[in-house]
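Why do we bother with a discrete structure alphabet at all? Because it lets us treat a fold like text: something you can write down, compare, and reason about line by line. To make this less abstract, here is a complete entry for Carbohydrate ABC transporter permease. Read it the way you would read a sentence in a foreign language you are learning: slowly, and without expecting to understand everything at once.
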Amino acid sequence: MVFARRSAVYMVLVAALVLFLSPFGWLVITALKASSELRVMPIHWWPHDPSLENFKDALTHFEYFAYARNSLTIAGIYSVLITLASAWAGYGFARLDAPGKRVIFGVLISTMMLPQIITLIPTYLLFARMNLLNTYMPWVLWGLAGAPFLIFLFRQFFSNMPKELEEAAIVDGCGSVRIFWRIFLPQSWPVIAASLIISFSWSWGDYVAPALLLDSDRTTLTVKLATGYVNEHGAQMSNLVAAGAVMYVVPVLALFLIMQRGFVSGISTSGLK
């Protein structure tokens, strides 16, 4: 009975794995096809002559690495700044006392329900008046502002830390800033890993903000993948788009594989108190 139940669970998990990986699998298969095979009906599931030439062409059709560098710069700056800012805000909500702290935290969490598309036009007008269009300063400011979800994660983690650590530091003459940098932040590596992965994925995969705020030379790889693979007739080359997209997910996948233990631990240890 136990074996049958375990086998059923494994079958469900395998089916779910196949379901979730099927879009990426189809992307890889498309990246291995020649352009002529994409116009054949009915559709061939597997390419007749699989080739890696599309990956080479995807790298050389436009300056792939230059736009990847733009994306990496924006995502790196944004993820580091928003992690530090969210950690500092989460520490304040968890360990410091101030009038109306609970009300402010409730308002902060309620902003998670606000669709980002609503703030799109006001954000553009604000940055335009500040002469920050076609610069990376919007991502710096967004990073310094923190994120409600990440602040929530840090707040929950810091709330569960022993109060004796803080009291011992106060006896030694440490202030709130030093306690945060010397005690709480080094202990919060699991949440830091989760925050870095989440925020890096947000910025790396964002299409709307770079398309709205940056010109074609300083834009990100996300935008260029959607518009850069066209032939001389203006038609999109789907096999090159697929090849470029497969390589596009590598940095996020590599970051997750490096920090996956911390990510899982950070999410699990930041539950509701």
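What the structure line is telling us, in plain words: Residues 122 and 212 are 12 Å apart (CA to CA). DSSP finds 14 helices and no strands in the chain.
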